[in-house]
Write a structure and sequence with these properties.
Elements (H helix, E strand, L loop, with lengths): L1 H5 L2 H8 L13 E4 L3 E5 L3 E6 L3 E2 L2 E2 L3 H15 L7 E9 L5 E3 L4 E10 L7 H7 L4 H17 L7 H19 L8 H17 L1 H9 L4 E2 L9 E2 L5 E2 L11 E2 L1 H14 L3 H15 L5 H21 L9 H20 L2
Antiparallel strand pairs: 1-2, 2-3, 3-8, 4-5, 6-7, 6-8, 9-12, 10-11
Length: 338
Amino acid sequence: MEAATAIGLAEKVAFLKCPESYPESPGAVEPIETHLAWVFLTDRHAYKLKKPARYSFLDFRSLAARRRDAEDEVRLNRRLAPDVYLGVVALVIDRQGGLALEGEGVPVEWLVKMRRLPRRRMLDFAIASRTVDDAALQAVAEVLATFYREAAPVTVTPAAYRQRFREEIESDARALAEPRYGLPADAIARTAAGQHRFLERWPELLDSRASAGRIVEGHGDLRPEHVCLGPPPVIIDCVEFNRDFRILDPPDELAYLGMECERLGAEGIGTTVLARYSALTGDHPPKALIRFYKSVRAVLRAKLAAWHLDDRTVPYPSQWFNRARTYLALAERYSREE
């Protein structure tokens, strides 16, 4: 325990930025910082180091907690990316007192080790380069349809399912309306009002999903940057740190993917994937429900973008402000469509 606490995050990151630190001796290392982790890309692998962070929905301050989460990440992501997540490896202090990766010594950190995926086959890159092909999308939809069809239903009462959205709408609206973010209060209010209007007008659309046993433990963060078109297609980086975030309706998750693709300028992708899912599963969610799911997801993403503005170390804060406004505009549009 003393060894683990004696070495800080900055020292670990500096070590992992060096190609000489890796058993495979890569030509270069590309470090990427996210809100919760550092990812280090080598020629063939990706290593994820979790930050010792604490939020209302997670607590990674202890080494043991970070190890448990790393193990959960590997286990859960192997559901949709079985050959990508290779395992959990240790960063240790060796006998000479130096840091070593995947060596013998006292563990001071635990990293998720993954096979590096080809950037050009990630869905967000394919959208930007206009190289998305229909056959690849159909294959992604088939993988997801099988995943959802084989997932065990999670028991949720209709009243509890509706209440979850009601609380989320109110909580997210309050978060976005914080004056320090400078987001348009009228747009936030209109969006929340439209979402509440859906709950009052069509409660049976949500009730029927819960009563029919449609709610499952899904991925939780189905975005284009997490979809590799393959072949074969794989989906990475699920929400591993909070099971509640993975308890959802499959069309909700597919609506989320569609919303994110639309934000990137590819509106038709969501429609294609959802249509194939419906054809394979016989599940045909109403359009009004899909719009509601998109609106709620877009507000969530607006909130997460705004939260980046609270981090004084984040470069280019205007990028996150503009992204929050873009998500909010999408959410408002979905909430008023009939």
